[in-house]
# Entry
Amino acid sequence: MTQLEAAKQGKITDEMAAVAAGEGVSRETVLAEVASGRMVIPRNPAHAGCRAVGVGRAVKTKINANLGRSPTNSGEADELRKLECALGHGADFVMDLSVGGDIAAIRKRMLDASPAPLGTVPVYETLSLLDGDVPSMAPEFLIGVIRRQAEEGVDFMTLHAGLLSAHVDKAMNRRMGIVSRGGSIMAEWMKKNGRENPLYERWDEVMDILAAHDVTVSLGDGLRPGCLADASDAAQFAELDVLGELVDRCRRRGVQVMVEGPGHIPFNEIRMNMERETEVCRGAPFYVLGPVVTDIAPGYDHIVASIGATAAATYGASLLCYVTPAEHLGLPDLEEVRQGVVAFKIAAHAGDVARGLPGARDPDDRMSAARAAFDWDRQFECAIDPDGARRRWLRTRPADEGECHDDDHCSMCGKAFCAVRTSRRIKNLLDGKE
# Structure
């Protein structure tokens, strides 16, 4: 029985109870949200040790870290170190987007090592096994890869089932065309073979596999815009309408489903995109890449995308896919994974505060109290990146003072010009203490 099937029958599963306890909401709230499809809990029973994480607007915004080797860079050991880094800095989900050789071995090691739900894009392994020969991909072979990954314990899968042959022509009028790796594979297969998307045509068969293993489907946005000029166009929204249809079919079958959203979008179009998805897909959790709000910041796209992600979280997204400084430039290294996770933890939290999620501002209030008291240790404990904050603070401390934490000032103002120290003196004066 899937989480959705159980919820529809009014059964509170262990996973629902764990989400409720971790989020500080009632079990009944989680039950109702899962039953409606507005929340998903991606957790394949075959993934031993995987924790239950809820994705939906009734709980905190979550973040995902994309990992995985490329045909030319990295390998199993590197990706496992990145996995440890991502989880250590607070990633709620991870995806193995490996292409090339040894994909199955890397995925198995990641599943064994990850207590977080792990996702994949099965068409990547499919095409890797075919040495990149897109036209030769038999639908039965792709479905077989989906089945095998589900049996192994993959918790959620990106499947580009909403990209139809008629949409491809619309996308070819774009400046950047199709920038989704999975979307481009499906588009080329359709045009080379003169056939419709096999995932769409055989969706009932795919859902049977997903339901049997309670794999959450993440409906891929194969036509997400790859530059501002292509944002919010006819191709993107034509695919979105089909994704809405597939959401309804998944819910009727008892399959948990979330929807992936656009990449490059001008800031002023983010709210409209979030609200349109919510309406078309009947409140299915929205999983967005960024969005990236300008095209001209290579090397800084984690900042650019976290700006868009904050707005997305405010207006409708439930899961944010991180972007690293390496976006558009190459495969991220360990430090870039850390920077991407931290930037998106900030965006997710800022979005939760902006939308008034109960309790979201509590860490900020604890931080302000620690700052007013010059309690450095408590400040570091409250920080999204405690180690990073501590390292930066130590960099400009006098060498002879070491890690003494009782200073009532920092190197920005020193003692004489510290506004917080001055405010304390003013308060003491008004209270008659000076």
Summary: The two ends are 68 Å apart (CA to CA). The chain has a mean pLDDT of 95. The beta strands are 39-40, 55-56, 62-67, 93-96, 118-120, 156-159, 216-219, 257-261, 286-289, 319-321. The chain has 19 helices and ten strands.
